[in-house]
Design goal:
Elements: H1 10-15, H2 17-31, E1 39-41, E2 50-52, H3 68-86, E3 99-101, E4 107-108, E5 118-120, H4 122-142, H5 162-171, H6 175-197, H7 201-219, H8 227-257, H9 268-274, H10 279-295, H11 304-311, H12 314-340, H13 348-368, H14 373-398, H15 402-433, H16 447-450, H17 452-466, H18 472-489, H19 497-502, H20 507-534, H21 547-562, H22 567-584
Antiparallel strand pairs: 1-2, 3-4, 3-5
């Protein structure tokens, strides 16, 4: 595919409309904030005629507005979200429900025998909407984390008072810094969208690394802090090593098959099913699982995650725990389900099950002893990765069928609702970070007295993470556990107790382990609620106004509540079911 084929006709434009909007937003982010009154003089003797060329010089008032970059990014992400949504609606006139793009750039209906590089279907569009929604919330909240002021009023010397020093550091951030942040966010969105659409390992890896490279910079973006640069460097080093291992695995799969297409004639899935994998293919797949394990923060590839979450700003940490994690699971499901699920042996199933058990247990145990709220939420995110890996292991054990689609529906639903309460919790921490606090649980003492409109949403987020009904976190866990149990128990009527237990699949015990770990997690989630409502504080009752962070928190609160029951929960569950069906089609 060359660049010209992307402009080949209206079909290509409509199918890739969300991605084109992201590309246009990136272009606007580069050009618009640099518009100014720059001119150049015509090289004509004895004349001073100057022609404006706008790029450079003193910026115009609207292009120098510190709110402009965030506004461009927010509008771009919102427009991409809406077009992705409309592309899956009947008679929308925007895009199509399902289409495939081949290596030559031709747009066709998806067929089993065809090789293609990108696939637009309910699954890819659903994941794109999850990515853009998470990034949109982060951009809205970050408007209050990157303030701007005139350089003439800056104090250049370090202040002894910590509060004054934090205020001085905040004023160092100007409009140019906001352009960088918003541009990186849009690059992350474009990379994640590429991963969602990819059905070829090469394009999938390019999208994965495009999003990852921008994420490494976002983690250390607040370089004025002590832990930000260190966290970014750790995340970059570990992520680069994991990416290199994954790329080496892809090269081994290419040597084995000669084609990196997942589906179609001569694709990886066809050869895996017809001839079976040899040692090189299995080692290549295992190396790819290392890269994906880092992206989803699965044990033992999770070591950089707590430091990255603690060093990043609250909105960025929220993106890492939701959109970035969902991107890793998309890649994992594309490869494992697309290539190996029809094999019947599924060598990776027991391995993924063991990793799931260790990941959810270790995440919850580590969170119990964590004194830093962001690190606690990081370990909580690791535990949630274990829950999802348990569902993936169950699908691998069951193979294609109604049971697998039910569990996949639960996984997609969980990734969607996780955006609301996980990002919401990090945004509350971000609001405290505006005061130079938020890195200790003691900073939450008396929060209900200081600002009940923030403490109540934080309590809702904690209860949703713990899986307390009727919030959306409960519904997502219930769907996953019930899907695993109903698919593995079967009919045991008339059997003795010992026979019934003996006939159970090992995957059944993963569902029991999810129950146990959810019970363990209640302790550290409720600990935040207890200190907010029952501990005293000597802090001033007035918190930072930060209106955009508060708006984002309210949006997340409404999502955590209304997606747990009612009409919107049903709509999301149906959309997740359609996405799961497309994943297995």
């Amino acid at each position: 595919m060359n660049l010209g084929t992307l402009f080949s006709g209206p079909d290509m434009a409509s199918i890739l409309m969300p991605e084109w909007i992201l590309i246009l937003g990136i272009t606007a982010m580069i050009i618009v904030p640099n518009l100014g009154n720059a001119t150049f003089r015509l090289p004509i003797p004895n004349t001073s005629i100057r022609i404006p060329y706008l790029l450079g010089g003193k910026r115009f008032s609207f292009t120098g507005d510190p709110r402009l970059p965030s506004a461009i990014a927010a509008f771009t992400l919102f427009a991409s979200f809406i077009t992705a949504l409309l592309s899956q609606m009947i008679d929308s006139g925007v895009g199509v429900a399902e289409a495939c793009i081949s290596m030559t750039g031709a747009v066709n209906e998806c067929a089993i025998s065809d090789n293609y590089i990108l696939r637009v279907d309910p699954f890819s569009r659903m994941m794109e909407m999850i990515f853009t929604a998470a990034l949109l919330i982060a951009v809205i909240a970050n408007m209050d984390r990157l303030p701007a002021t005139s350089h003439k009023r800056l104090q250049l010397e370090v202040q002894e008072d910590p509060v004054a020093e934090n205020r001085r550091l905040a004023k160092l951030l100007n409009n140019r810094r906001q352009v960088d942040f918003s541009l990186l966010v849009l690059m992350v969105a474009l990379g994640m969208s590429t991963v969602a659409l990819s059905t070829n390992l090469f394009s999938l890896f390019v999208g994965l690394e495009l999003a990852s490279m921008a994420s490494y910079v976002l983690v250390s973006f607040h370089k004025e802090t002590k832990i930000g640069p260190e966290a970014g460097v750790k995340y970059f080093i570990v992520g680069s090593v994991a990416g290199a291992v994954g790329l080496y695995g892809i090269s081994m799969l290419y040597i084995w098959n000669g084609d990196l297409s997942i589906y179609g004639t001569g694709g990886l899935a066809e050869k895996w099913a017809s001839e079976g994998p040899n040692g090189m293919a299995i080692i290549g797949l295992a190396m790819m699982l290392v890269a994906f394990g880092f992206k989803v923060s699965a044990v033992p590839f999770h070591f950089a995650a707590p430091d990255a979450y603690a060093g990043a700003s609250g909105p960025v940490a929220g993106v890492l725990s939701t959109a970035s994690k969902a991107m890793g699971f998309v890649a994992l499901m594309r490869v494992l389900f697309g290539v190996t699920l029809g094999d019947g042996g599924n060598e990776w199933t027991i391995l993924i099950g063991a990793v799931a058990a260790i990941t959810m247990t270790w995440g919850n145990i580590a969170a119990l002893g964590s004194k830093n709220p962001k690190r606690m939420l990081a370990y909580s995110s690791i535990a949630h990765a274990g829950y999802i890996l348990a569902g993936i292991a169950a699908i691998g054990a069951l193979g294609p069928g109604a049971g697998s689609e039910l569990i996949a529906t639960a996984i997609i639903f969980h990734l969607a609702v996780l955006v609301t309460f996980k990002i919401g919790a990090f945004l509350v921490v971000s609001l405290l970070e505006c005061e130079g606090r938020g890195h200790e649980i003691s900073h939450f003492h008396g929060l209900a007295r200081r600002d009940p409109m923030i403490a109540i949403p934080m309590m809702i987020f904690m209860l949703a993470l713990a899986g307390v009904p009727p919030l959306s976190g409960f519904l997502s866990k219930l769907m996953m556990v019930s899907g695993i149990i109903s698919s593995t128990v079967g009919d045991v009527s008339g059997a003795t107790l010992s026979d019934a237990f003996g006939s159970l699949s090992w995957v059944f015990w993963l569902a029991i382990l999810i129950f146990i770990n959810s019970a363990i997690s209640i302790f550290y989630y409720l600990r935040i609620c207890v200190v907010m409502f029952f501990e005293e504080t000597d802090r001033s009752p007035r918190m930072s106004r930060a209106p955009m962070i508060r708006i984002a928190i309210m949006l997340c609160t409404m999502g955590a509540v209304v997606l747990g029951f009612g009409v919107l929960a049903d709509v999301l569950a149906i959309a997740a079911s359609d996405a799961a069906a497309a994943l297995f089609s």
